[in-house]
Amino acid sequence: MRLPYAPNTPPTPDQDTADIYRRIAERRHPRPLIPLDLSLLHSPPVADGWNSFIGAIRTQTVIDQGLLELAISRVAVLTQAVYEWNAHAPLALKGGIRPESLCAVRTLSSTAVGDDLPAAQVSLSQSALSAREQAVIQYTDEMTQTVKVQDSTFTRLQTEGFSDREIVELTTGIAGYNCVSRVLVALDVGENNAREMKSVDELVQALAK
């Protein structure tokens, strides 16, 4: 971490700050505050808004949680956010994503940028990913790396049966976790930047214990 972590308890008697700590702790319960919380809590108002936004994405959405975690895991790969991958790839597996699909997310070339996008598209279409998963990955790649999403990519989400609400939730989830990854990497939260992302086999083995 490039900054010292904020304390685990409010550093001042200020009630507003104490309330922010309480709200974040309530969302994390029964876990303690995590390094990302203790990074953001240098600015309690920012930490509070972050907790509300990310909390809504994580706990108040109707989109399939496996697909959401798949998208977040792809964001982690594209932005080289080791902390994010190690935290969310296991959640994708818990959400019903098959290991072979997660392996594809980890290894496939970007479908948004690169020297041979047609080959990347073919690799995506021939991967272990289902049609719905492929649509999510294409959308995630473009949102993360080119920002502008092609009409065909957006239409594919609708063709695959995603409702308007689900598309908004997927979009905000991808955007939100792009924000997360950039904070994680810029500040080296959790001291993960120099580490390797865990392999899918390691994640599967850990979940089996």
UniProtKB/TrEMBL annotation:
Domain Carboxymuconolactone decarboxylase-like: 44-114
Gene3D superfamilies tied to this protein: AhpD-like
Gene Ontology molecular functions: peroxiredoxin activity
Origin: domain of life: Eukaryota
Name this protein carries in UniProt: Carboxymuconolactone decarboxylase-like domain-containing protein
Membrane-crossing segments per the record: none
Pfam family, one: CMD
Organism annotation: Aspergillus nanangensis
